[in-house]
Amino acid sequence: MRRRNWLIALNAAAGFRRATLCSLARSAEDWMNIAQETIPRTALRLGLPTEALQRAWELQDEAQRLATAEVEAAARLGAHLIVLGDDDYPAALLDHPLPPPVLYCRGSLPRGPKVAIVGSRKMSSYGHDACQLFARRLAEAGIVVVSGFALGVDAVAHRTAMSVADGKTLAVLGCGIDVDYPRGHHTLGQEIARQGAVLSEFPMGSPPSRWKFPIRNRIIAGLASGTLVVQAAARSGSLITAHQALELGRDVYAVPGSIFDPFAAGPNRLIADGAAPVLCPDDILEGLSLSEQLVLFPSTKGMSTLEDRRQDHQPSTTASMSDPPAMSTPTIPPPTGFAGRALAELADGEPRSAEQLAQQLSADIDHVLASLLQLELDGWVRRLPGPHYASTQPSRPTAQIDA
Fold first, then answer.
1. Mean pLDDT, range 342-355, rounded to an integer
2. Tag placement on the chain: N or C end, fewer CB within 10 Å?
């Protein structure tokens, strides 16, 4: 209890930089019981600012009072606190080097696989429809839809997930959970708390500030196994979330859009940089890990029958990497040029990632991804979880290969 109170008080105290605060919390066991005269030496050993460690150490006299005030204020809102080290602290956040010391939670943290859907506060009808399509299908499959509670794409993602029977959603705020921001979203927050949870790492009464939203975004990226960007400008907080997801080793997906649409600039740039373009929600479901697929589809041993549920004719990526590539008869002639070289590398039946192909072909990753996308659309390759790519043909194609 002493450690728990100390971390709650530390999180609520003013004057600490957020990164320093998270570092202090993660190394709490290494400094909580030291003598005051060893603070400089301990700070040096832990890589912490001496002044910050001194202030944190001195906070112990006020820890219980400050912690009690935060717990009681949250309880009046029907919320509770989850502290780093608690049994119900989200394990996925521990992958981040700076996990939040405290999470204020209104509702109950939904269990199961999670996918983040993020995008612009302003969106076109295309963005609105795409967001609804993906959020609904993912929620129907049992995915918890995570987003940032903002106007636009975030709000549509939350509401659409909740419109599905037993749909679950998780909202992460860039302010205190008792602050009505965006103004007028108070009712939405109450609805989310009934079908999921509203989370914030910021103390009660903490107002929204520009610097808090990138910090908030790391939680969105950390909680989800993948992040989907629907629409976003070239410089957008959604892209920050996507890049943080990449840094954590999570999958990043993007809905492609017109090159003339400024709100498609963000997703299109992500695709050019290597994010997976998604044309339907099942593209995301197929990319989930086997353990996540078994949670969602236990009776089918994962995604073995997903192909029967697809509503379009996109090439299937349902097989595991150990499965042999499915046979098909493409109606498009064998490719030539660089695409033919890429296909020839896959002719031995061994799945490869785009990065491996780029290395084997001594080519830029963007060039490889563009060729793989065209080969997939033409039926010459199939995309497998990872993502990896394999030829759909049983033997080396008779493609005319340029030197």
1. 85
2. C
CATH of 320-403, one of 1.10.3720.10, 1.10.760.10, 1.10.10.10, 1.20.120.790: 1.10.10.10
Distance CA 143, CA 130 (A): 17
Task: Compute the distance between CA of residue 33 and CA of residue 329 in angstroms, rounded to an integer.
Answer: 69
d(CA 109, CA 357): 40
Question: Which pLDDT score, from 0 to 100, does residue 322 have?
Answer: 38
Rounded to whole angstroms, what are the CA distances from 258 to 90, 154, 262, 377? 37, 21, 8, 18
Distance in angstroms (rounded) separating the CA atoms of residues 146 and 140: 14
Could you tell me where in the chain the CATH 3.40.50.450 domains are found? 108-286
Largest CA distance in the chain: 77
Q: How far apart are the C-alpha atoms of 285 and 142, rounded to whole Å?
A: 10
- The DSSP line for 337-359 is HHHHHHHHHTTTS--B-HHHHHH
Mean pLDDT of the chain: 87
Cα–Cα distances (Å) from 275 to 67, 369, 370, in that order, read: 42, 9, 11
How does pLDDT run across 235-268, given as a tens digit for each residue? Answer: 888 999 999 999 999 999 999 999 999 999 999 9
Query: What's the pLDDT band for 22 if we cut at 50, 70, 90?
Result: very high
Is residue 185 within 8 A of residue 157, CB to CB? The reply is no
The first and second tokens of residue 3, run together, are: 């450690």
Q: Which regions of the chain carry the CATH code 1.10.10.10?
A: 320-403
What is the C-alpha to C-alpha distance for residues 330 and 379, in angstroms, rounded to an integer?
Answer: 5
User: 108-286 adopts what CATH topology?
Assistant: Rossmann fold (3.40.50)
> How much is the pTM?
0.74
Judged on CB neighbours under 10 Å (0-12, 13-18, 19+), 261 is middle
7 pLDDT more than 50: yes
Assigned token pair, 134: 């993906």
End-to-end alpha carbon distance in the chain = 69
Using CA atoms, how far apart are residues 130 and 263, in angstroms rounded to an integer? 13
Query: What are the respective helix, strand and coil percentages of the chain, to the nearest 5?
Result: 45, 10, 40
**Mean local confidence (pLDDT), 314-339:** 52
The mean pLDDT value for 216-235 works out to 95
